[in-house]
Amino acid sequence: MSAAALDRREVALVDLLDRLLATGLVLTGDLTLAIADVDLVHISLRALVTSIGAEVGLAGPAGGRP
Amino acid sequence: MTGTVYTYAVARPFDPASLAGVRGIDGARIHLVRYRDVVAVLSALPTPGVDEAALRARLETLEELEAVARAHHAVVEAVAARSVALPLRLATLHRGDARVADALRQGYEGFCAGLDRLAGRVELGVKIHGGVRDACTADPGPSTSSPGRDYLRRLHRQRRQREGARERAGAAAREIDAALAELAIDRRHHRPQAPPLCPAGRENVLNAAYLVERRRGEEFIERARALAAHTPGMEVEVTGPWAPYSFVDTPSAPSPAAGHEDGRHT
After folding, report:
1. Do the beta carbons of residue B3 and residue B44 sit within 8 Å?
2. pLDDT tens-digit map of A17-34
3. How is residue B7 annotated by DSSP?
4. Between chain A and chain B, how many beta carbons pairs sit less than 8 Å apart?
5. Minimal-distance CA residue of chain A relative to B126
6. Is this structure's pTM higher than 0.90?
C-alpha cells in the first residue's frame, strides 16, 4: 500500500472516530448499555497509532480478523 | 425485537422502506421504533447473547472497530439523507425495541429540540496542519571549537525555532477558525490528532467542526480554501459534509454567531 493510500484511509477513519467516540447523542435510560467512551477512545487511538507505526493492520478487508 | 438492539440515530419519521438497501452492524436490516413524531433507527444484533462486554471486547481490535464505525456511519448518513438525524454515540445497545421506545419517551423534548435545531444544517470538519516539525531542519549556525557546546546550542536553537513555528501556526489557525466561524452557526474543537496521524513533518494545530446551513456549505468550503491559499506553510483540509455528529449535545439556545437565522427549519 502506498503512503498516500494509507494516509487517505487512515485520515478518514480517524476523522470518523473523532466523531463517533468523542461526540454523539447518549440515548439515556437506565437500561442503556452504551459503552464508556473514554476507555474506547484510549483503546482505539492506541490501536490506530500502533498500526500506523507498524504500517500494518489496515490493508485487509474491514472486519476481518488478522 | 426482544434481543439486543443497536441504535444508530434518532430522527424525524421517514419511510423505512427507503432504507431497504441499507445494512447495519453485521449486515443486519434496519428498522425504526417510533414515539410520537420521533423515531429511533436500529438493528438487531444477530448473534444471540451479544451484550456490552462482548461488543466492547470486539471493538478492541482495530479491524472490528473500523467495521462497526463504518457500518454505524453508513446508517447515519443514509438517515441524514432522508430526514434530520441526531447521530448516537458508537455502540449504544438496548435489550429490545421496547427499551428504546422508553428512552425515546423519556428524552422526547430534548430530541425534538435537537432535531429542530439541526434540521437543514450540516457539519463540516476543518483540520489545519502547520509545519512545526519542519522548523528543526534550519541552519545549524556558526560552529565553535567545542563540538559539545555546538550540539547543545543547536538543540536549544531548534527548540526555540520549533516553539516559534508552533506559536505562528497556532495564531494562523486561530485566525482561520475565527473567519470560518463567521459562516457557521456553531463550532466545536475536537482534540488535535496525534502526530503519527498527521502528514509527515506537520502537526495538527486545529481540529474543528462547524455547523453550517446546508445551502451555505459550498460557500464555507470556498472560504476555507481561500484562507488556506492565503496562509503559507499551513495545510487546510475540509472534511464532510457530515451528519451533525459534533453538535447533538448542544443546548438549544441559538449561538450569537453571524449567519444564524432564527426559526424552525423543516
Report:
1. yes
2. 888 877 777 776 444 444
3. E
4. 155
5. A15
6. no
